[in-house]
Specification:
Length: 487
Amino acid sequence: MNNELSKLYPQKMWEIFANICAIPHPSKHEEKILVWLKNWANEHQIDYAQDETGNMVLRKPATKGYENRVPIIFQGHIDMVPQANSDSKHNFVTDPILPRICDDGWVRATGTTLGADNGMGCAAAMAILADKTMEHGPIEVLVTVDEETGMTGAFGLKPEFLKGEILINLDSEDEGELYVGCAGGLDANFELDYTTQATPENMKGYEIAITGLKGGHSGMDIVLGRANANKLLMRLFKKGLENIDLHIAGINGGSLRNAIPREAFATLAVPANKTADFEQLMNGLIAAIAKEFAGTEPDLNIAVKPTETPKQVMGKKCQEKAVNLVLAIPNGVMRMSDSMPGLVETSTNLAIVKTNNGKLTVANLMRSSVESAKEALADKMRAIAELAGVKIELAGGYPGWKPNLQSPILKTMLKVYENMYGKVPEIKAIHAGLECGLFSLAYPNWDMISCGPTIRNPHSPDERVNIESVGKFWDFLVEVLKNVPVK
C-alpha cells in the first residue's frame, strides 16, 4: 500500500484506494480483489453477499433516527483498464499499480493506468461503510465486476439481489456535475481470412511503430479529435501499396475495445532496389501527419526502421482488401446531440486491428444515446462488411440510460450542492457506457444518478485524479446521506 496516499483528505477513502491499487484487478482478473473485499467486510463486521456473476453487495443498517429514509445504494465497478506505455514491463495480472502524488495536485500511476476509474468510486463507497460517525439511512454498496470489457456484472445482476430504491453510481469523472443519462453500446467485429505467401526474393524488411498518441476513453475523449493509431497505419499502407511494391507481414494495433488506440506496429517488406523511394515516401507522409495533428498529438512518433526480412507476407489481393476495409470503417464522432449541446450522440472507435494465423480481426465499439442511431450505425458496419466480402459479428450490446429530470434524488443533490458550494451543479449525460442503463432492466423503478471526482485521461497511462476534487466529492456524499428523502 502507498502510505503517502493515506495522508490525503479524506484519509480513509485514500487509504482504501491505496489498498485497491496494491492488488492486481484488471478486467477478467478480479479474483484477488474480491477475496480482499470479503476479508475487509469481515474485518469491519459488514454483512455481504455475492451473486453467481461475482458482483458483491455490502449492507449497513441505518443510524438511529434515520431508519425511515429511502434505502440507498452506492455503486462502483472493481475492475480497471490495463494500459501501459510501450516501454513498461508492467504485468497487470501480478503487479500492483504504483500511484504517486504529483506537485500539480493530481495523483497518477507510474507508466500505467491508475485505476481511479473506478477505484475511487469503490473506495468512496467502502469508506462510507467504514465510517462510524456518519448519519444515514439504510445503505447498500454494490460492487460489480468486469464493467470495462462488456459490463458482465451489470448484465448478470438479478432482481431481488438488492433492496435499495435509490442508486448513486460513482463512476462519472467531473466533480460538480451530476449525470442523469448515458450512451448505449454495441461491438462490431470484422474478420478477414487472408492467404500468405513466401516473401519474394530481393526484399528488405521494415517495421513501422506508431507511438506517443494520447489515446484515452473511447466515449468521453472521442470528441477531442485525437489521432487513431490504426487509421494512421492504414494511411501509410495505402500510399505504400499505391507507389511501392509493398508486402505486409503483420499488424498489431490497439489493445482495448474501449480505448482510443495509442499505438500500432507492423512488419513489412519492400523491394531492395526501392528502399530509398519507400523511405522518402514514408518521411513525407509522416511529416504531413505530424503537421495535421500538431495541435492534438504533440508527442506523436512514427518510426520506420529496417528490420529482419519476414519470411511470409500477406497475399497481394488480401492485403489490399485489408487496408481498404480498415480505411473504410468509420471512426470518431458521427453526430452531436440535438437536445444537449456539446454532448456526442453517436460515435464509433476503431479500436483494434491485428493479424494472426491467417486472420485479420478489426474490433470497433459503437456508442449512441439514441437506440435508432446505434442501429443505423450497425447497419452501416454490416453494409461495409458485405461490400468487402468479410465476416462481421455484432455483439455485446447494452442499452443507454434515459434522463429523468424529475428524479427526486437529483433534486435533493442539486439543493445540497448549491447549499454547500454556492452554485448549482451541471446536469449532464455522458457519452460512455455507465452500468445504469443495464440496471434498469432488472430494477426498472430505481431512481438513479451518477457523480464522481475529477478524473482525466481514463483508459490511458496518462490517467490522473484531482486531489482537491476528491475531498469535495466526499463531503458532498456525506451531506447527501443526511438529506436522503423520507419514505
